[in-house]
Design brief:
- The structure holds 2 protein chains of 2 kinds.
- By secondary structure, chain A is mostly helical.
- Helices cover 74% and strands 0% of the residues of chain A.
- Chain A contains 14 helices and no strands.
- Chain A is globular and about 70 Å long.
- The N terminus of chain A is likely disordered.
- By secondary structure, chain B is an alpha/beta fold.
- Chain B is 41% helix and 27% strand.
- Chain B has 11 helices and 14 strands.
- In chain B, strands 6-7-8-3-9-10 form a 6-stranded mixed β-sheet, sandwiched between helices. A 4-stranded antiparallel β-sheet of chain B has the order 2-1-4-5, with helices on one face. A 4-stranded antiparallel β-sheet of chain B has the order 12-13-11-14.
- In chain B, α4 crosses α5.
- Chain B starts with a strand and ends with a helix.
- Classes of the chains: A mainly alpha, B alpha/beta.
- At the A-B interface, α1, α2 and α7 of A face α2, β6, α3, α4 and α6 of B.
């Protein structure tokens, strides 16, 4: 050991002079170093393999269920959407299993939570956080790297899934894909990614708030279960107690109460996601709330153009993005001025 | 010599608890400084503030000419820090861990692999660098932590409890390595510890840190001089013959200028003197009187005594405070406790 120290006497400490010349681009590349490392970690982890298997199984099962039913669904001329084969592949079902996008609204949170629940506290418990933060990198780069890497993983996962489905559909049925279908499916994918990103940023936030990875995981799962199972029940329960009996109300009042109930239900992120994905995948949906007969007068049940469907779900999408960003902002707030003690 | 680390009126409070209290400290370039103190004295907090990992409540820390709170990136570029419980990514090999840190310091890929291997050789882990760090022992992790610090070629190394959990021979090697690196490359080293002997072995300067305050600072010789200036010097002489009662030549010896008291304990005689270097005279006198001297010992004030002295003081203060506060509590809260 000692002789080796002697051997490096001269060449060793000369690297200091050009340290100040680190430029902006250098910091960006430092950020990419962190992202690369995080992605490598994800790919090597068992956790990601388990999650990917889960999503893959869901996908295969729901496609299988819709495949069995696709002929009747496409031949049903009463359905205004019967022309969209690929959308039907995603939404048609033989009732043995919910369609893919509904299944995803239950399972996607798990993906986000699974990738993010120990982002910061595991580093802290391993003693690597202090070491990492002693390097000349900005603190927010760590948060951003954690987020970006998971985001890239999720994005590529869904992109691969959707492209596989389209390719498989093309080979199997030989039916040409409409540009509108492609647009709708890609947008659906983007919304799914945003939805997972929301749960991801929520779980990253919890991983900062709680010291133990188990606590943050449980809390995240608790929130997930609350919104998927209990929230709707709770809202219905409260509405029954607080709102007047609908039989004594005018139709106008019933309508406004209905809107109110829907708005309350839409606090739940998976409601937002289901609304958005359903509208995009089923082009004939014109409104997410109740419509009066006056509004429906003269309307022919036909698919909407892509732009119109997108306009209907725009509030939902921006709501999802906003909640993702606010979770992320709170994470920043907590993490930036916190003491890093291992 | 210019100061490379300057702490000015640095304070840190956690709620009402004061962790670091108005600390002023200058550390010169090329020095090995030992921050000594018991657990919970605020050593780690001070170090964290030097790296911008926590914000001081007041005052500032200048490291390498940069303010650690407002400009931590520039500080971290120049300072290598090893936390007290250093951890690594267990699913990566030691070399991969090291290369990751190297990349974060902006080292070129070409140079990186060469430098990483070189640093691993320096710390003596050349054989095990392709092992996963999960399989590393505590001592090996500590060395890898040092490699981690060295790969960025720092100007200052800050080691928080670097000797914690390593076996004694490992500690010696480790400290010698640090000393050698510091001497050969002009590195400034700040190490915190509660192990006096470790610090005594390598440090040029020592600061004793108790309850957020730096009590004294200086090299060990000057510390002991300062601390024990008014104290008597004691010499023990071990004799072959057993002496019962008083020493036959006691009066003669007491007549020598400087000797204050003589105490006989079996074969050993204790001389208390108020001057330094009375030992040769005592030995000569005893030998002339025909005593067979087996050994002579002098009381040396080492770090242990220094440390003990300060900690005793703080401990007694502490108990006094506790007592008074409990009295206060009793009188004040007895009404409410029911």
């Amino acid at each position: 050991m000692k002789s080796l120290v002697a051997s490096l006497r001269n060449p060793f400490f000369h690297g200091l002079a050009n340290k100040d010349k680190l430029k902006k681009s250098k910091y960006q590349s430092l950020f990419m170093v962190m992202v690369n490392k995080e992605i490598a970690d994800h790919i090597r982890s068992w956790r990601f393999i388990v999650l990917i298997t889960l999503i893959l199984l869901t996908f295969i099962a729901s496609i299988y269920a819709s495949m069995g039913n696709i002929r009747t669904a496409v031949e049903n001329t009463n359905d205004p959407n019967h022309g969209f084969l690929y959308l039907k592949l995603l939404t048609a079902t033989d009732n043995s299993l919910p369609p893919f996008h509904i299944l995803l609204s239950f399972l996607a949170p798990l993906l986000g939570i699974g990738l993010g629940f120990d982002a910061i506290n595991a580093e802290q418990n391993n003693g690597t956080l202090g070491r990492l933060m002693a390097q000349p990198v900005y603190r927010d780069n760590l948060l951003l790297a954690k987020f970006t890497s998971s985001f890239i993983m999720i994005g590529s996962l869904f992109l691969v899934l959707v492209l596989l489905m389209l390719g498989g559909g093309l080979v199997w049925t030989g039916v040409r894909i409409e540009p509108q279908e492609l647009l709708r499916i890609l947008t659906f994918m983007v919304i799914t990614i945003v939805y997972v990103a929301f749960w991801l940023s929520l779980s990253v936030l919890l991983s900062i708030a709680f010291k133990q990875a188990a606590t943050s995981a449980l809390t995240a799962i608790g929130i997930w279960i609350f919104f998927t199972v209990f929230y709707q029940i709770l809202v219905t329960l409260l509405i029954k107690t607080f709102l007047p009996d609908p039989s004594y109300l005018s139709s106008q009042e019933v309508l406004s109460y209905n809107d109110l109930i829907l708005d309350i239900l839409r606090i739940s992120p998976n409601r937002l996601y289901t609304d958005a994905s359903t509208t995009l995948l089923i082009p004939s949906i014109r409104s997410l709330g109740p419509l009066t007969t006056e509004q429906m007068a003269g309307a022919i049940p036909s698919p909407l153009p892509f732009r119109e469907s997108l306009l209907i779900v725009w509030p939902q999408v921006s709501g999802l993005i906003a909640s993702t960003i606010s979770c992320f902002a709170i994470s920043y707030y907590f993490f930036m001025r916190r003491e890093i003690r291992s | 010599m210019s100061s490379i680390i300057q702490l000015k009126n640095l304070s840190k409070n956690y709620g009402t608890k004061v962790a670091v209290d108005n600390l002023n400290l200058d550390i010169s370039k090329g020095e090995i400084f030992g921050l000594l103190g018991p657990n919970g004295a605020g050593k780690t907090t001070t170090i964290l503030m030097m790296l911008g990992l926590t914000e001081p409540s007041s005052g500032n820390a200048m490291v390498c000419g940069f303010d650690a709170t407002s400009n931590p990136i520039n500080v971290k570029k120049r300072v290598g820090y090893m936390p007290d419980s250093v951890g690594f990514y267990d699913n990566l090999t030691a070399l991969e861990n090291l290369e990751y840190i190297g990349r974060l310091n902006g080292i070129d890929e070409k140079e990186l692999s060469y430098r990483a291997v070189e640093v691993m050789e320096i710390v003596g882990l050349g054989q095990d660098m392709h092992l996963k760090t999960g399989a590393y022992s505590r001592g090996m992790k500590q060395r890898l932590g040092l490699a981690d610090v060295l790969i960025k070629r720092p100007e200052v190394i800050i080691l928080d409890e670097p000797t914690l959990g390593i076996d004694p021979s490992g500690v010696r090697d480790f400290l010698l390595l640090i000393k050698q690196l510091s001497r050969e490359n002009g590195l400034t080293v700040l190490l915190s510890s509660h192990h006096l002997h470790h610090v005594q072995q390598v440090c040029d300067q020592v600061g004793i840190f108790v309850k957020g305050k730096l009590l004294v600072k200086g090299n060990i010789a000057s510390l002991s001089e300062k601390l024990f200036a008014g104290q008597d010097h004691v010499t023990w002489v071990d004799l072959e013959e057993k002496i019962t009662g008083i020493l036959p030549h006691e009066n003669e010896l007491l007549a020598l200028e400087g000797i204050k008291a003589i105490k006989v304990e079996g074969q050993s005689i204790e001389f208390t003197c108020n001057r330094r270097n009375m030992t040769p005279l005592i030995v000569r006198t005893l030998a002339e009187r025909g005593y067979n001297i087996l050994g002579v010992r002098q009381r040396n004030y080492g770090l242990e005594e220094i440390y003990q002295k300060y900690f005793e003081n703080s401990l007694t203060e502490n108990t006094v405070n506790e007592k008074s506060s409990s009295v206060f509590k009793k009188s004040f809260f007895s009404r409410f406790s029911k």
